[in-house]
Amino acid sequence: MIKNELKNTLIFMFRALSFNFRYNESMTTQKISTFLIFIVFIIFISLGLPDSVMGSAWPAIRQTYSFPIDMIGILGAIQLGFSFCSTILYPKLAKIWTMDKFIIFSTLLTILGLATLGLGSTFFTMLLSCILLGFGQGSVDITVNDFAAKHFSNSLMNFLHAFYGVGVMASSFIVAFSLQPHRSWQLGVAIISFFQILILILAILTRSKFKEKTVLTSDNKLKDADSKLKLSHFILPLFYFFYALELLIGRFYSSFAVEHLHFSMAAGAAITSFYWTGLTIGRFMTGFTARWFSTQTIILFHLSLLILGIILGFIPQLFIQYLSGTLLGLGLAPLYPMGMKQTYNIYSDSIAKRVISLNIAFATIGMFIIPIPLGWIFEQFGFASYPFIIGGFGIILSGLCWQIYTKVIKK
């Protein structure tokens, strides 16, 4: 009976999504089938699959490579930097490549990056892995987002980003499984690579459906030359700079659990898995609850979960840490997508477009810069400071959200 109810619920949800998409088909240049929506969701899962490997398996990886603790911040910055490079190259390559070539090439790069990570044991192989993963994931990210922006409704866009969380959540559980006794983190990388290969085969088999050119539309003609940014316009970009908290938790939580709380590596990876699970579930939930509750109510509720998760993080008990990780994920879940939407609610169109560009830029800078000094701090002083640092970021985000969602910023 329960299985039938679950099946009917999933069918209803997917039909609702498909209906919501067809309702917006008049604004697209071509009709997109439900099957194609499903393919795009699967491809976006591939974006998240490699993302939790560095965080969940880092205690084991650094032992294999004989790296110091702070090396994860440097390697993560390198990977993020090359991901940013791929987004810069995208508009030029999009003039000559169709979308199917981007998807196939990008997925192949991530597979090679994972293989290099699993088979290597030197700094140079690790560096090559970060470069390949950075380019591959960055290219998949911007290609699919560009396609979705052209053809998907707002509802489908939200669910699309939730499927990224599905990929991260799945890979974190795979890593936790591989870190059980008599196994190795390389097994987890091999399993994730296998799923990436399956997605690559799927992309090749369906490549005819992605033959359109993926040239980005220029926003220059939409900008208002007379609209000058003021200091108050930088409150949202500043929020996205500190939203690097999402990455910090995913990258350092496992090391905190292993190095400071002295849990097993498998337990540390599992805690990170619970975090990514909370983030994913939270984004799916927000996709539905946004229909019945105001944005302010949703943000306040999730910030409360975030603060509670931070408080529980100070308690050195395994079950409490699982709960803390889940609450941290649930708390952060709606902040990123709803912040983007809020930009158009408080600013005029010409200002909003420029602020959104700053949001993405500040988010990238935050994720690039902040992990490096924190990695050095943890290397020098240990992970005892981890919950205090996470708490500090949580307080800053809460204060910025108060400014963003409770005060009217003049356009």
Automatic annotation (TrEMBL):
Chain segments annotated as transmembrane: 32-49, 69-90, 102-120, 126-144, 156-179, 185-205, 231-249, 261-281, 293-312, 318-336, 356-378, 384-405
Stated name of the protein: MFS transporter
Record keywords, A-Z: Membrane, Transmembrane, Transmembrane helix, Transport
Record has Transmembrane helix as a keyword: yes
GO cellular-component term (any): plasma membrane
Subcellular location: Cell membrane
Top-level taxonomic group: Bacteria
Coiled-coil segments on the chain, per record: none
Mode of membrane association: Multi-pass membrane protein
The family this protein is said to belong to: Belongs to the major facilitator superfamily.
GO function term, MF aspect, one: transmembrane transporter activity
Primary localisation category: membrane
Residue ranges constituting the Major facilitator superfamily (MFS) profile domain according to the UniProt record: 36-410
Classification of source organism: Bacteria, Bacillati, Bacillota, Bacilli, Lactobacillales
